[in-house]
Amino acid sequence: MELMKPEICIAAALLFMGVAQIAPPCFAEVKELPAPCSGGDDWLQLDSAEWLRGNLRRMRNRTVEFNSEDLNSQTFDWDDDVATLCMAGIARFVRTNHEMIQGIGHVGQETVSILAATGQVEFPRSDLVAILPGRSSELDRWSFKLSLGGDFNTGNTNQSSLNASVVIDREDSWTRTQLAYYGSYGAADGVVNVNRYRVETGIDYFITRRFYAQPFDAALQYDEFQNIEARVSPTAGFGYRVVEKSWLEWDFEVAMGYQYLQNISVVAGQQLYRSDFIGRLSTYFKWTIVNDLKLTVNHTSLIVATDIGRTSGHTRSVLSYKVNDLIDIETTFVHDRVWEPVPNAAGVTPKKDDFQLIFSLAVNVW
Description:
The protein is mainly beta. It is 6% helix and 62% strand. It has 2 domains: 42-136; 140-364, monomeric porin ompg (Porin), CATH 2.40.160.40. It contains 1 helix and 23 strands. Strands 11, 12, 13, 14, 15, 16, 17, 18, 19, 20, 21, 22 and 23 form a 13-stranded antiparallel beta sheet that branches. Strands 1, 2, 3, 4, 5, 6, 7, 8, 9 and 10 form a 10-stranded antiparallel beta sheet that branches.
């Protein structure tokens, strides 16, 4: 048999050496990734069959907040986007009948399976209302938000204004409670030209996932330039969530109650204060425009049955941009209207409408 020529042997050796130098990058060792639903992380599978690894922040109101190391915080529609969810640690699973089951759970396309202290629990996915990670704690039910905004001018015009709001919420599987304060104060050249505040509180008791009773809801308002010393309006009624999507929520409420109105001053011969029977119509609208940009609108009409001219309306619209989990930037538009304002002792009648545009920084304390 004829032997290979020397020059062919040399070329083959050089070619082998070149391939050996190039090969490592091409055939580098691939990092082994964990299998879905394994390890110490939560896993979320989208309807596209893609998997995300990270930790579930919560699922509520058909919205999933999931935090991934590479993608950071993401929001998904529970019904349209999420196929499977695996929890690595203890979580609280809330059903439509308000039962809360604590354990390690797996949510499939049709069934929720939970390993609880009492054993294995299974129920249809359609019965699941919320998922809250971690063991039950009273602090987990509370949230606190502080917003501050203001402007200051010196020189030809000395003017300053300060706007502040504090909103405290508590939610559990049965109830939703809120206490809120909104205040504005401003002066131009040492003369006060804005001085108002509003306090709101109420409790909602969920009978079904969408229908809720309001055993108590009330607002207290003071407005120096609307000639209102105090307007107190406790009511009770019912509410219904008309739309419940991850990107859109719309609630509508109907209630009846009582209104006490005291003016700062009145012309001679007029009543300084009076009480009336009222009906309340309220609506709440929240639209997630994009992942971190949201618009919320709250409107309340207090219809005075015994004197329709004293009917009033209050609308607060907030465009909020989420900078991170702690900070939001907010633009707020407020509209207050009184159908027939009461003249003060000097005979000056306030305007029917007050408009306010507020730019503020909000801090989510917890």
